[in-house]
Amino acid sequence: xxxRIFIALLVALLLAYVVFWFVLADQAxxxxxxxxxxxRRAGAAIAYDALDVRGFPYRLEFAAINLDMAxxxxxxxxxxxxxxELVVVLQPWRLTHAILFAEDLTATxxxxxxxxxxxTRNMRAxxxxxxxxxxxxxxxxxxxxxxxxxETGNQVFSAENVDFHWRRPTGxxxxxxxxxxxxxxxxxxxxxxxxxxxxxxxxxxxxGKSPYGETIQRFMATLSVRGEPGDRFDRQALAxxxxxxxxxxxxxxSMAWGALDLIVEGSVSLDDRFRPLGxxxxxxxxxxAVIDHLQQAGEIDATEAETVKQTLRNITSDDEEGRxxxxxxxxxxxxxxxxxxxxxxxxxxEE
Length: 351
Hints:
Layout: H1 2-41, E1 45-47, E2 50-54, E3 60-72, E4 77-91, E5 94-111, E6 114-129, E7 135-149, E8 157-167, H2 171-178, E9 191-203, E10 215-226, H3 235-243, E11 247-257, E12 260-270, E13 276-285, H4 288-296, H5 302-315, E14 317-318, E15 324-331, E16 334-337, E17 340-344
Antiparallel strand pairs: 1-3, 2-3, 3-4, 4-5, 5-6, 6-7, 7-8, 8-9, 9-10, 10-11, 11-12, 12-13, 13-15, 14-15, 15-16, 16-17
Helix pairs in contact: 4-5
């Protein structure tokens, strides 16, 4: 008797979940259609051949077939996204986390006569929001990425196995990341966002102007923003961010490019004239190729080339892997490698 009751309850629960899933799918589909209609009324052009709802029983899956979205923003920037099939996946128990899939996707961003077109293959993205639909984490990975247009000199930039991550630390996450400062340590502004990007075989013909070739074999960078920079990019907003202790922390930038093996870390802020102000440490192997390249181009002679190499040896220290540690400073509008000023640094924003 108890077994029959258990089976009956189990069947009832399963039937209830089936009803719950289909009701949820119907409501979600109506919300998607309503959101599309709202975007159309706001000026967006959105077309698709079909909107399929599937994924029973574990998830809600919306597939837009032959999707074509375009819009011109009030600031004059226009964009367009085209995909044979864009799939958005939601889990019934966590509707604040959306996962997007597209085997092929083309995105074009245009402003005046300038335009850039991105093409991805086997793209997957993840978006996590709070209950108010404010983004907390965004991640994207793609097997192959190409970019072309005026921003790349009308030449094709390509990369493979590209990963991009962004997150806004909140609550306990911020406290854990900030940690408790030790006695004597400076009190840091809380983290407002973190960025990370990684890619392999980054290729562009312009890279060939360097002595290392047209292809960067490996690139990775992680960046943290301390202080809240705000939504505007103007002198007033930047001044507030700077004066409240805002900094950009380059946790690590690493790159393998031909003979060059580079690791850089440090932090940068702005001085009172909005010029970069910071300090970095670079660990580098293969820097000799740059000096030889300048000599072959006639920029320096053999004596000067040897002098530069010897100077770098004198101001650097070798590590166990044969890298040279080079201090880099940005101050007073100049870029210094060791004690040598090598470039002027203009303000990041003009008056």
